[in-house]
Amino acid sequence: GAGVSQSPSNKVTEKGKDVELRCDPISGHTALYWYRQSLGQGLEFLIYFQGNSAPDKSGLPSDRFSAERTGGSVSTLTIQRTQQEDSAVYLCASSWAGGGGDTQYFGPGTRLTVL
Amino acid sequence: AQSVTQPDIHITVSEGASLELRCNYSYGATPYLFWYVQSPGQGLQLLLKYFSGDTLVQGIKGFEAEFKRSQSSFNLRKPSVHWSDAAEYFCAVGEYGNQFYFGTGTSLTVIP
Q1: How many whole angstroms separate alpha carbon A31 and alpha carbon A20?
Q2: Per-residue pLDDT tens for B27-56?
Q3: What is the pLDDT, as a whole number, of residue B34?
Q4: How many Cα neighbours within 13 Å face the side chain of A96?
Q5: CB contact under 8 A, B46 and A103
Q6: Half-sphere exposure of A85 (CA within 13 A, CB side)
Q7: Three-state SS for B110?
Q8: Beta-carbon contacts of residue B105 (< 8 Å; ≥ 6 apart)
Q9: CB contact under 8 A, A106 and B98
């Protein structure tokens, strides 16, 4: 089917507001990943889901960041009380089963700008 | 901790010239190694990956990469670059478990 989709593609918000970013993985993929890509930086791992559970939340930068996945499919990344340093491109990826050798398929990303 | 280093932030090559993008990793065991490309406004696309076996891996778009354990390297090569290859290239290491480590990327400019 279709590839990984993310919405919105762009989000501009004011400092202190909450934002929700959505990821629709490839149908049938059990693993889902969130990354953050800041200007001039590589991809920073945020969180990983296997099914609906998140065995690895080690990359979430602060307690303002949270994520959930429902029905083993769609995932939402929520950033509360956004700060300017949260401005970045947030990328979602999915893979069939997870694991270090499993190819990840990436969405186009959501560009978040915090004013 | 595992890490991936791409020492070249930006590379400029002429169209038709050969290309080599460097990637070094730090990992205790034999890693899973990947190269991804990100074109402007696009998501990351897998170029190739190495798991085991033949250390020279062929990928899409005419790219290849060679795993050299002794040098902890996984350099990406292309014998003749096309203008459409201008993009950001990321090397990544996957470990047992689910963690992936990406390099900071190399931006490629192709001169006509």
Answers
A1: 20
A2: 767 788 999 999 887 789 999 999 888 899
A3: 93
A4: 3
A5: yes
A6: 4
A7: strand
A8: A42, B6, B9, B38, B88, B89, B90
A9: no
